[in-house]
Specification:
The protein has two domains: 5-140, 60s Ribosomal Protein L30, Chain: A (2-Layer Sandwich), CATH 3.30.1330.10; 155-312, PurM-like C-terminal domain (Phosphoribosyl-aminoimidazole Synthetase, Chain A, domain 2), CATH 3.90.650. It is 33% helix and 25% strand. It is built from ten helices and twelve strands.
């Protein structure tokens, strides 16, 4: 298969010009439903043997991750989650016990974020299990966080550690599941940063956000305005102790893992330089861990500067049509 995600999206959407789609450049669509009130809609899917395997994910894990990655898109827009729908394409191996376990996994996360199931569809499938979810959130006065609205000189920030989920995937693949439980949990049961998204949407100095689903190396390209570039400082990337330990044990380059591992679902956001001190103070006071990792620059191109002062090659990042996450 020679197609890639970006070109596929362009081909599928080239005839559509509805303003609600936001140019198909963001994590969700926006629909005005009443004065001062809009709905935010997003949809994502999980496919067995592409995004997870039965050997490494329980039914509850699959349900949690499917809903979490959808809720993360609402977090990236600064929306409050309200409802979700799901379509399950079930192969013959699925049992009533598996369905019950799956239901518990989705219900636990939905209850925590006040999200209600509206319905969906069921189908039998000859092939892998496929789960597609659509989520609906609300914003007031059509105020949302967007991609591609950062400005030259803005500080680039993230809302948590990078590389944990990618390391967790490798730990599962290499048989280190019991040695790195927090990394495996980050892979199986990511946490959408809903509260941080709501906080950022109320900050005047915040110039947009997105969730890091395919890794900073790939997603930063989607986040930046066209014709602008960015520099990331390797020493500033937040990487927790367990990820560093895993990288040392397995021989992985920890910076590459943090940049391209993917599925961390933490928020990437841009902040006006003069607003950063006050925004960081308010964020920390509210209990959020936020980290400055780089800056937006006038010259196109992405750069990562190591502690030595040398520049490392920019990693490729994840593309849905060129890689398989779980194998």
């Amino acid at each position: 298969m020679t197609i890639n995600e970006l070109n596929t999206v362009k081909r599928l959407t080239r005839w559509e010009q509805t303003p609600s789609a936001l140019g198909f450049a963001d994590d969700a669509a926006l629909i005005s439903v009443a004065e001062g009130r809009s709905l935010v809609l997003s949809q994502d899917a999980l496919v067995e043997n592409i995004d997870f395997t039965r050997a490494t994910f329980s039914a509850a894990d699959v349900a949690h991750k499917a809903l979490a990655e959808n809720l993360s898109d609402l977090a990236a827009m600064g929306a409050t989650p309200r409802w979700f729908l799901q379509t399950l394409c079930l192969p013959d191996w699925v049992s009533e016990t598996w369905i019950d376990d799956y239901s518990v996994g989705s219900r636990e996360l939905a209850k925590r974020f006040g999200v209600s199931l509206l319905g969906g569809d069921l189908s039998r499938i000859v092939g892998p299990l496929v789960i597609s979810m659509a989520v609906i959130g609300e914003v007031s006065k059509e105020k949302i966080l967007r991609r591609k609205v950062g400005q030259i000189g803005d500080v680039l920030c993230v809302g948590g550690y990078l590389g944990r989920a990618g390391a967790g995937l490798l730990a599962l693949q290499k048989g280190f599941e019991n040695d790195y439980p927090s990394l495996v949990k980050a892979q199986r049961r990511p946490e959408p940063q809903i509260e941080l998204g709501l906080f950022l949407n109320n900050e005047i100095g915040c110039h947009g956000a997105m969730d890091l689903s395919d890794g900073l190396a790939q997603d930063l390209k989607r986040f930046l305005p066209d014709q602008l570039g960015a520099t990331i400082f390797a020493d500033a990337i937040p990487i927790n102790h367990e990820t560093q330990k895993f990288a040392r044990q397995t021989g992985c380059d920890v910076i590459t893992l943090a940049l391209s591992g993917g599925e961390d679902f933490v928020l990437l956001f841009a902040v006006a330089k003069e607003c950063k001190p006050d925004l960081f103070h308010r964020a920390q006071k509210a209990g959020f861990s936020v980290y400055e990792i780089g800056q937006i620059e006038e010259v196109p191109g992405l750069h990562c500067i190591l502690s030595s002062g040398n520049e490392m090659p920019w990693p490729q990042g994840f593309d849905h049509f060129s890689e398989i996450r779980c194998m």
